[in-house]
Amino acid sequence: MDAETLLDRIDELPPLPAVAARVMGMADEERTSAMDLAQVLATDQALTAKLIRISNSAYYGFARRVSTVREAVVMLGFKQVRQVAVGASLMSTFKQQQRPDDPFNIDLFWGHSVAVAVTAEALTKKTRVARPEDGFTAGILHDIGRLVLRQTMPDEFYEAVRMACNTGMPLHLAEIKLTGYAHDDVGGALGERWKFPPHLIDAVRCHHDERLTPENDGLAGIISQANRLVLHYGLYCGYDVDHGEPGPLPRDLEAVEVSCGGIDRVLERAFTFIESASGAPDRWYAGAA
């Protein structure tokens, strides 16, 4: 079914936090100073605290301790501040009650999203077909449509996750079967509502098209291949299934893994980012402990 129709009939969809939306725009404005950006960030105390905490975390590993939001902006740079602001804000925006028997876990959702973001950031640095900050941001955003489905069609989504866990069917196919919607289309429509740049919307909408490559398709290819790599190693979106050791890595993904420093490095950086952005997750992937 048409994703726009789903968005049109729901009233409770949260907006992108105002500060994160403003930061996304300011980071691309040439005349923006560190003080300008710091003043906007300072209006959101929770986001300010997260930004300082992330700046001082092992994720960045700065020798000098950051104590103010202005120092964080100077140390990280405008572009990385955008990715931190968007990532931390979205983690706070889509907080939903977890039903006791729910196979979908929000910690594992962000684990998958941030792992794709870390992989995509590394791939952009290697291939130079897109900006690293766009790779990270698109990675964080790529499955956002899944949270919309979970919020608006909880029973159908619950059954889709159970089907994926029990049968091995990819979750995006189980979703279509049981909800009638594709989460990548929903995410693309949401990106348009939130006025994301077109290249981010395209990356969200096309992330399940495995034919895309960084060389031919830019950012959309980056996210497609980063998602493939993370899924290959069992970092599923919102649930954990023990399938034993993953099979041989497809040849075209070998270069992807090399470019991001190996899956262990991806897992380490993803966990560190989530831990500093939202506190230690209550649950992490069993095979990645």
Describe the protein's architecture and organization.
This protein has 17 helices and no strands. With 289 residues, it is mainly α. The protein has a single domain, classed as Hypothetical protein af1432. The N and C termini lie far apart (39 Å).
How would you describe this structure in keywords?
289 residues; Hypothetical protein af1432; mainly alpha; 17 helices; globular
Identify the CATH class: Mainly Alpha
Rg calc? 18 Å
Distance between the termini: 39 Å
The CATH homologous superfamily is named: Hypothetical protein af1432
Summarize the structure.
This protein has helices spanning 3-8, 18-26, 34-41, 45-55, 69-76, 78-93, 106-127, 132-141, 144-152, 154-167, 171-179, 183-193, 198-205, 214-217, 219-232, 251-259, 263-278. The chain is mostly helical and 289 residues long.
Write the layout of secondary structure elements.
Elements: H1 3-8, H2 18-26, H3 34-41, H4 45-55, H5 69-76, H6 78-93, H7 106-127, H8 132-141, H9 144-152, H10 154-167, H11 171-179, H12 183-193, H13 198-205, H14 214-217, H15 219-232, H16 251-259, H17 263-278
Helix pairs in contact: 2-6, 3-5, 4-5, 4-6, 4-17, 5-6, 6-8, 7-8, 7-15, 7-17, 8-13, 8-15, 9-10, 9-12, 10-11, 12-13, 13-15
